[in-house]
Structure formats: structure tokens, C-alpha cells
Amino acid sequence: MMWALALTLLVWTGAVWLARFGRGWVNPVLVSTIVIVVVLLVTRAPLAEYQEGTLPLTALLAPAIVALALPIRRHGRELGRLLPALLVAGLVGTIVGIAATALVAWLLDVPHDILLTLAPKHATSAVSAAVAGVLGVDVSLAAVFSILTGILGAVAGPPLLRLLRRRDPVSQGLAIGLSAHAIGTARAMELGKTTGASSALGLALAALFVPVAMLIASLLGWL
User: Which end of the chain is less congested by CB atoms within 10 angstroms, N or C?
Assistant: First the structure.
């Protein structure tokens, strides 16, 4: 089983090194995921065996998410002054994100179960998977959509914000955290401490608002 752990660490190290030359366009999560998938397909290694071998790394995910509270604590005074506005922005951003996703999926005539799987993708993979489980749709696919959303947000988010001339670090961070959760927040940390703290707050707000918004929309028959 040690081969799975060694493979993951080796590929991740290489992906992080490669990202140094990508100026934000080469995402380590995307690169390492592609490489590991290719290796597993070529070698025909059992996925269950790989998952079992990487359990020590998986166990670190929960503490890593909790650790994101530290930047929020360090910038608590700055973010606290803006908290009412950030809460409103987080709620509106969450609703718009879910509505836009559902609308595009509906216009493309996506099957209803896939639409429900897509809708919570702006929350972290654990939260989106939990929401999918409650709604009775594919949990694994919901997690995949969430991860892909995070990668896309981490890669395209900062350039898009610069294009829109959004230079305020709190605004930048909140937008990235709300739309790209943990993967985007890791990228936001590279842009600045305030940006990273605001992104961590956006991640937390999305994890709070997405399940509530999905529940209300489902009860009202909007999804």
C-alpha cells in the first residue's frame, strides 16, 4: 500500500514545482490528479487499493480545513468591521451561483438528477457530497463537480478579477472563496494575507449558505 502514498507525494511535489513556472495557470491539484489517473489507468492498479494507501493523507483534510480559521482569526478586526456587508454578499453570491448553475443546466436540457448534482458545486466537496446525498443523487459526481469548480476558480478567478479591476483584497478573497472553496483559497493565500483570510471566510460562508439555499429551493420546488 505504501506505493500509493509514495506516488501521491512524488506527483504532488512535481506538480507544485511545475506550478512555479505557470504564473497561476498551472494548478497543482489539476496536474497531480491527471497524472495519478493516467498512472492508475496504465498500470491497472485497483482504485480501492490506492484509496486505502492514501488514507493517512485523507485523514489530514479535516484538520487542514479547520486550520483555515487561523487567517480569519488573524484578520478578525479588519473582516469584523465589514462582516454585515460580507454576510449579505456571501448570501447573494451563493444564491446567484446556484441559480446560474441551475439555469444553464436547464437551458442545456441536462437531466434533472445531474442538475441537482451540479447545483451545490460552489461548496467544498465534502459539503456538496453531503447535500447530494440528502437529495438522493450521485455523491461521488457531486464531489468531482466541486473539485473541478475549485480548480477552475483557482486558475481563472484571479485573472478575471484583474480584468474586472477588482483590486480590493477583501473583495477578491471573498469572491474566490465563495466560488472556488478550498482549492481557490489555497490560491488566494498566494495573493496576500488579507486576500487569503477573506477567501477562507468566503469558503465558510458558502459551506453554510449552500446547504440552506439548496434545502429551501428543493422544498419550494424550484429545483
Answer: N
In whole angstroms, give the CA distance from residue 60 to residue 43: 27
CA 125 to chain centre: 7
Any alpha helices (H) in 20-82, and if so which ranges?
28-43, 47-53, 55-58, 61-67, 69-74, 76-81
Per residue in 165-220, pLDDT tens? Answer: 888 899 999 999 998 888 888 888 888 889 999 999 999 999 999 999 988 888 77
- Could you give the CA distance from residue 178 to residue 215 in angstroms, rounded to a whole number? 18
Distance of CA 169 to the CA centre of its chain: 19
Query: 197 vs 114, 138, 161, CA distance in Å?
Result: 33, 32, 17
Model pLDDT for residues 39-98, shown as the tens digit of each residue? 888 888 887 888 888 888 777 777 777 777 788 888 888 888 888 999 999 999 999 999
Residue at grid coordinates 509514495: 6
| Whole-structure pTM value | 0.82
List, as one string, the DSSP characters of 122-172: TS-HHHHHHHHHHHTS-HHHHHHHHHHHHHHHHHHHHHHHHHTT---HHHH
User: Is residue 147 a contact partner of residue 29, using CB atoms and an 8 Å limit?
Assistant: yes
